[in-house]
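Progress report, Aim 2. The chain analyzed during this reporting quarter is listed below.
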Amino acid sequence: METLNRNSAWRLHWSGILAKLAGVLLVVAGLSGCKKEENKYVAPPPPKVAVTHPLVQPLTEYLELTGNTQAVELVQLKARVKGFLTQIGFKDGDVVKKDATLFVIEPPPYEAKVKLAEANVDSAKARLLRASQEYKRQQQLIKQSATSQSEVEKWQAEQDAAQASLDEAKANLEIAKINLGYTVIKAPFLGRVDRHLVDLGNLVGSGEATLLSTIYRLDPIYAYFNINEKDLVRAMEKDKEDGKRDLAPFPIYLAIEGEEGYPHKGKLDFAATALDSSTGTLLLRGIFENPLHDGIPKMLPGMFVRVRTPLDTIPEALFVSERSLGADQGGAYLLVVNDKDVVEQRSVRIGPRVKGMRAIMEGLKKEDRVVVNGIQRARPGAHVTPVQEEETQGPSEGKAEEQPQAKPAPTPATKSKANSGKAASSPRR
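Predicted structure tokens for the chain:
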């Protein structure tokens, strides 16, 4: 019995050992299988990028220029006669009406000169009357042989001299009245007067015409600007197509510092005859309304302004979001996904910005798919998974900057790549 029990114990002991060895071998085999599975390379799927087709909208192409404003009329008010300044009829910066009295220069001496000239005219008239009557009497006497021919000729000469004296006196009277008129300086038009440069009581007009002040006509107002030769040729070609003879009929739009867009509408009313050979530009001028509000105009002479004028209308221009544009040493570019879902870097010529969207003038087609989101994952030459972004209806403020709600792009190449990527991939531990 003891021998039987001892043998049973040994069998149980060795059975336990064998069971433990089998468990260890199974664990090792399992670990070997997992390690082999982890070492197998699984290619990652192409990165997803949001794409959209460019928006097709009409575009008016403008020439954008810079210039300065100038007053339509500017008059320097000067003292044309000598005298003491006795009156200033405005406050500095006032808006004055036409013919309003601005300055008065000591009228009494010039009023006296007018009276003296009038007296000289009366005296000359009296001499002429006496000479004319005597000449007529001598003509009657010569017919009766009661006088000599020399007497007739003498009084004829006296009459002519008296007539000349009268003409001279009248001319002196006219000059005296003109000088008297110069003592009162009036506004030549409705405008705004600058500050006065001479105070009351000062002697003016002594030796030269003394500048007293300046008056500006501010409504309307001019804007002068220059166009380069290249743009000028384009505008002239457009004129020829439209049957126009010159640039003058073009409407133009203007903005001053701090204004959004171009709120002031005017018209081009002058173009210089020749280009400036030193700059290669042509001088142009536009005229704009500039109403006064409480005596203050919107625009003042000498202001820097932005000007633009329509040049041409493109019926189907292409627009993209500004966020899709990049730039390098070669200029602006877009990332475009081709029909093989490969990213291409496309150099483009950009146009104006219209309500949050940028016009693309060259380098893009309307069927192209432009990367608008995930640009950092889209490397030129790399495969990607394009995801179609919702398109907006047109260039509108704010919509171009909204984040897209993505959906799969309906292209066969995309679907096949997506399916093959799913089949090739497997969960990684």
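The two ends are 57 Å apart (CA to CA). The domain at 75-215 is CATH 2.40.50.100 (OB fold (Dihydrolipoamide Acetyltransferase, E2P)). These observations will guide the mutagenesis work planned for the next reporting period.
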